[in-house]
């Protein structure tokens, strides 16, 4: 009897195979691993690629349910942070408006904290040029 036959755990471990793409670049935003969506990517395909559950990917990205991804969209592979990195206390909206969710994705901040640092702004608020969006707890 060989070792794999004697020990069923080892036999099952030996049968496991993993596959992943070697050409996918993984980036860091605010210290959090992320990828940029490519042609025909979905939350499900990215979850499978990185051995995660789709629910995890959706939660990490503050998305309630799966939807089509846009090419170039940031998809976080870990939970976003409570605030922006040191030296980046706020975002001032310019003439190309970003939604609060887009700002949270851009800077790697959880939506619930972005809303906490900016009381009175609903989650669907669309900042207008000149609006100040706090990316950390504001000093008042």
List the helices and strands and how they pair.
Blueprint: H1 3-6, H2 8-15, E1 27-29, E2 32-36, H3 43-49, H4 54-60, E3 74-76, E4 90-92, H5 100-107, H6 111-117, E5 132-134
Antiparallel strand pairs: 1-2, 2-3, 4-5
Helix pairs in contact: 3-4
Could you explain how this protein is built, in words?
This protein is α+β, with helices and mostly antiparallel strands and 140 residues long. It is 29% helix and 12% strand. It has 6 helices and 5 strands, in the order ααββααββααβ. The protein has helices at residues 3-6, 8-15, 43-49, 54-60, 100-107, 111-117, and strands at residues 27-29, 32-36, 74-76, 90-92, 132-134. Strand 1 (27-29) and strand 2 form a beta hairpin. Helix 3 packs across helix 4 (54-60). The mean pLDDT is 89.
